[in-house]
Amino acid sequence: MLDIKLIRENPDAVKASLAKKGVKPESIDEVLAVDLKRRDIIGTVESLKAENNKKNPEIAKLKKEGKDASALLAEMKAASEKVKSLDADLAKLDEELNIKLLYIPNMPDESVPSGADAEANVKTSEWGAKKGFSFKPKTHWEIAEHLGILDPERAAKVTGARFVFYKGAGARLERALINFMLDVQTGENGYTELFPPILVNRESMTGTGQLPKFEEDSFKLTEPSYFLVPTAEVPVTNFHRDEILPEKNLPVCYAAYTPCFRKEAGSYGKDMKGIVRMHQFNKVELVKFTTPESSFDELEKLLKDAESILQKLNLHYRVMLLCTGDMTFSSAKTYDIEVWHEGAARYWETSSCSCFTDYQARRAKIRFKDKENKTRHVHTLNGSGLATSRLLPAILEAYQTENMEVIVPEVLRPYMGGIEKITK
Fold first, then answer.
1. 18 vs 207, 282, 366, CA distance in Å?
2. 110 located within any domain
3. 362: in domain
């Protein structure tokens, strides 16, 4: 969440920044109004306590002299009762302020382009080239059906729409991608692997910004009150919740594989064919904890680490800097990596790499001790490294042959038992 002190001291700047994310200034005014009431009560309570502290020696003196102190004692009792009542009011205002702050998104960094939607995103780079086939390339769902490696129909019978069975070489290719990506990130890019739970509690979802605003987009259990992870970002970021890290350990970098679960609310009718938009999909996530001074440099490194997977697979992609209107709720700056799908003839986002500044760290109370022994909030970052539901289709389409067989990329062959080609 945003620092209330920042809002209090720079209300106009905060309003101007958040307006780029569609936040109305009235939302900030409401926060400030509650904060003002809260500070007024704190001032009154401190004044009453100070007055009572002054009366203590006066009462002692009167009693020592054998005089009546009942009037002062009655005043102290009345003041104490007032303090007790005000403390109850203060607790309610603290809760109200906290809830209002939880609904305020993070401020976009000044380097982020302004815009209402994806049309205003800016391409910062691209890598590789489109394949260029001598035949009309097929889509991944046509190739998968021909090879018998994906089965959404039986998954719909077993569970429902937007689920899939990976079968045979399809299952092996999915597993190969996950292991390959983890090996690259841990063996070459310096990440420590975590294998986290895929059920998390309400505090964890709140810590990373999914709650309370996006609760309806999440899959959840009613008893106990757990949530299926929408991404490994949630358990891995909360790995250090309520902790103080030594600065010498920063940046702390983790890579984690989990299945991910999303309702994709409001997206029905979009991209229904194939596996690019699923309720359950697999992803390797990269998470960093850094100092505020280094966080945007670490974002650039995180982006390169995610790109390295696509480069090793020799897949054409482009990097887009998201505009203010296309960013996520918690992000201060986000790059999307969009991989080219040859058969569908379009780009699909396969990774988002974001810096959240101290927004998540304030929610989750993740701090560090700096060189002056001052306790400060870390900055958190994460990025997909990558999502297989976009990566596997891109491979099927980029490595297809005219008769709808699929050449296995060289870097994946050791994970596929040496298989060089997927055939029917």
1. 20, 33, 24
2. no
3. yes
Final residue belonging to a domain, choices 41, 67, 102: 102
Burial of residue 188 (CB within 10 Å: 0-12, 13-18, 19+) is exposed
End-to-end CA distance of the chain: 52
| Total residue count of the chain as it appears in this document | 424
The 3-state DSSP class for residue 348 equals strand
In angstroms and rounded to an integer, the radius of gyration of the C-alpha atoms of the chain is 27
- Please state, as a whole number, how many other Cβ atoms lie within 10 Å of the Cβ of residue 70: 9
Distance CA 264, CA 160 (A): 14
Phi-psi region of 209 (alpha: psi -120 to 50; beta: other; left: phi over 0): left
Q: Residue 72: what pLDDT?
A: 86
pTM to 2 decimal places: 0.94
Local mean pLDDT, 10-residue blocks, the chain (424 residues): 97 98 97 98 94 88 87 89 95 97 98 97 98 96 98 97 97 98 98 98 98 94 95 98 97 98 70 88 98 98 98 98 97 98 97 98 97 96 97 98 98 98 96
The predicted pLDDT at position 73 comes to: 87
* Residues 71 and 135 grouped into a single domain: no
CATH number of domain containing 72: 1.10.287.40
Q: How many CA atoms lie within 13 A of 386 on its CB side?
A: 33
Given a contact cutoff of 8 angstroms between Cβ atoms, the answer to whether 190 and 255 are in contact is no
**Both 49 and 82 in a single domain?**
yes
Q: Rounded to 5 degrees, what are φ and ψ at 245?
A: -95, 145
* pLDDT score recorded for residue 65: 87
- As a whole number of angstroms, the distance between CA 179 and CA 177 comes to 6
According to the model, what pLDDT value does residue 267 have? 54
One domain for residues 389 and 315: yes
List, in order, residues 6 or more apart from 257 with CB less than 8 Å away.
178, 181, 182, 195, 232, 282, 283, 284, 285
Residue at 383: amino acid letter: G
Contact 97, 37 (CB under 8 A): no
Residue 134: what residue type?
S
Which sequence positions are flagged as catalytic? 262, 277, 349, 352, 390
Name the one residue in this structure whose structure tokens are 């209090």.
8
Residue 39 backbone phi and psi in degrees, to 5: -70, -35
Quick one: pLDDT at residue 271?
Answer: 63
Q: In whole angstroms, what is the distance from residue 188 CA to residue 159 CA?
A: 38
For 290, the domain range is: 118-422
pLDDT at 63: 85
pLDDT of residue 335: 98
